[in-house]
Amino acid sequence: MAFVDRRRPENVNISQILRINLFALDNGHIYYEIQVTLSQFYWTIKRRYSEFKELHDKLVAENKVENGLLPAKHVFGVKNEAFLKKRQVDLEVYLLRLWHHLRWFPTAFAEFLDFHIYEIHFVTEDLCKKFALNDDPQKAGREDFVFTPLQIYAVNKRLQLPEPNHEPQDKSRDFGHLLDYIYRLKIVRILGSDSLLGASNIVENQLPVDLMIFKSAEELVLDQLRPAMLSGLENVRLTVRKLKIHRTLQSLSVFFLRDADGWFVDSDFPACLYWNKLVSADLSSNRIEKIDSSIVSLLTGRDIFHAVGKLLMACSFSRIRGY
Fold first, then answer.
1. Which of helix, strand or coil describes residue 299?
2. Chain centre distance of CA 298
3. Confidence (pTM)
4. Measured between alpha carbons, how far is 37 from 43 in angstroms, rounded to an integer?
5. 133-162, pLDDT tens digit by residue?
6. 33 DSSP β-pair partners
7. Sign of the CA dihedral 129, 134, 137, 143?
8. Which DSSP letter does residue 68 get?
9. What percentage of the chain has pLDDT greater than the value 70?
């Protein structure tokens, strides 16, 4: 997934990251298309000159950028092709000069480039802002917040990077505070997608989704995900009481034996595969061809309800283990 190495800005080749590819007329306004490329990932943003000016004013006020750095606005000839091509080049040079002046992406610059949607540092910072106003994960978990695979990937990727987790001066950017919040969440909802994300080449369901960060989840809702990309099930099995999986499964084994490591359906399952605290499960709106009783035995709670849309089957068990 896309990220910039903030530890070594001197290694960032900004001319390969930022380019303005073209300009276009839309509803009477001229837009410049910026392409951001990080490794194999890229996305595009359309911005008007007025948005460049708004960005520039913020950076002048907050980051001491030179006031004359932005190409001047011209009243006449703004739709002349030669003029627009020159402005396209000038605005690209402006973005490159901003980087060399700032050596990082302040919030205004990052949001102008949609980093908060695609780049892992700013995706996690955006999550920090969402959760900073609420220190009670139990309360927040009962609201309608839904994680995306990209957000979960970004959090796990940040954990792997040799960077400090804490930002003591600003809780809204404190990754350590975000981790603590996620660790205590009781209700976790994740919604995947097989479509391209925005104006990028990123497909969220092609990203790994490691559930290890959800250490206190009691209710887990998985919707429209790829089971092959899921990991960390050994963690959520210890805590989850309510499980809902929709538009994800074609068989039970692809999920419930996801990390079986060589155990087969006709073998005794190791204790680590059992969902010992589970009291209800909803598997509706999947494409499950059959229910294998030996795998159902992994769901050891009481009053387990299985709704399998394609077969229109519903089975209620008062005691599942050993079924």
1. strand
2. 30
3. 0.86
4. 7
5. 566 655 544 456 899 999 999 999 999 987
6. 22, 46
7. negative
8. G
9. 77
